[in-house]
Write a structure and sequence with these properties.
The protein has helices at residues 2-27, 59-63, 68-92; strands at 38-41, 46-49, 54-56. It is mainly alpha-helical. It has a single domain, classed as Alpha-Beta Plaits. It is elongated.
């Protein structure tokens, strides 16, 4: 029984380690210079967030501290990604 319990514990530990490793890998980004996050285009007064797809022609107001639309786009993108992950997990069951 001890051997069986030890093997089951080892299998559970390996599964947990694999899940944690996959979670870490999904959070790590490459250090590639071409991976853009945000573009500030001063001549066109435009800001573009490449992660969320947010674009606006109010760069001057963003630089003055009005960050609510920019932050909201990041929150919306995060919620959409989480919902997609949940639906994929639910459909896998």
């Amino acid at each position: 029984m001890r051997v069986l319990r030890a093997r089951l514990h080892q299998i559970a530990q390996e599964a947990a380690d694999q899940a944690a490793s996959a979670a870490r890998r999904s959070q790590i980004r490459t250090v590639d210079r071409s991976e853009r996050i945000r573009t500030y285009n001063y001549p066109e007064n435009r800001i573009a967030d490449h992660r969320t797809g947010y674009k606006a022609y109010n760069l001057d107001t963003v630089l003055n501290g009005e960050l609510d639309p920019l932050v909201q786009s990041a929150v919306d993108a995060d919620e959409a990604a989480r919902m997609t992950a949940l639906t994929q997990d639910a459909s896998a069951l």
